[in-house]
Specification:
With about 180 residues, the protein is of the alpha/beta class. About 25% of the residues lie in helices and about 25% in strands. It has a single domain, classed as Rossmann fold. The chain starts with 6 loop residues before the first strand and ends with a strand.
Length: about 180
């Protein structure tokens, strides 16, 4: 993961970075491959509430994520049912006007993601989750190799691009946004 070269946009199967670099997204446009853009929720209020909202900085980051994916031709946006994840996903839903917001349960995410892939080959989704379940999700899709660690509590902006045909048949790249 390149810590200094932040993702600026996703368009026409390419990721564009702050330094002007471009990187192609593997298998873009191939109807046999599903693409997921996975992100941990943005910065949350440090209020001791069990379901805190995004902080002002988090709201800004969520808007940035929405801008990055505004031309990615998403087919859906998925989020856990926590306020901070839904607020992180909302700008992407709002920019696309007609995207459904799909809720998922962390404890059932492996079965859920496998079903999503089986029923939606060739589609593109944003998935917003938490510091532990997003790395668990990409590791599950990777198969036997577990290379993505939990995200530290104070780290935000992790972004995973996944091209997959199913568990163990995935190409995963990690970036910052």
């Amino acid at each position: 993961m390149n810590e200094t070269n932040y993702l600026e946009s996703v368009k026409n199967g390419e990721m564009l970075f702050a330094d002007g670099a471009k990187k192609s997204i593997p298998h873009w446009g191939d109807p046999a491959w599903t693409h997921f853009f996975c992100a941990r929720h943005a910065e949350k209020d440090r209020d001791p509430l069990s379901n805190p909202e995004l902080s002002a900085l988090g709201q800004s980051r969520a808007e940035r994520l929405g801008r990055i994916l505004s031309e990615a031709d998403l087919d859906g946006v998925c989020s856990t049912d926590f306020l901070r994840t839904r607020q992180t996903a909302e700008p992407s839903v709002r920019r696309a006007h007609t995207l459904p917001m799909i809720s998922y349960e962390v404890r059932e995410q492996n079965e859920w993601i496998e079903s999503l892939i089986a029923e939606n080959a060739g589609k593109k989704y944003l998935i917003v989750g938490h510091q532990d379940n997003i790395p668990m999700l990409v590791n599950h899709l990777q198969g036997e190799d577990f290379e993505f660690d939990y995200i530290l509590d104070f780290e935000f902006g992790h972004f995973y691009v996944v091209a997959t045909q199913g568990v163990g048949q995935s190409e995963i790249q990690e970036f910052r946004y």
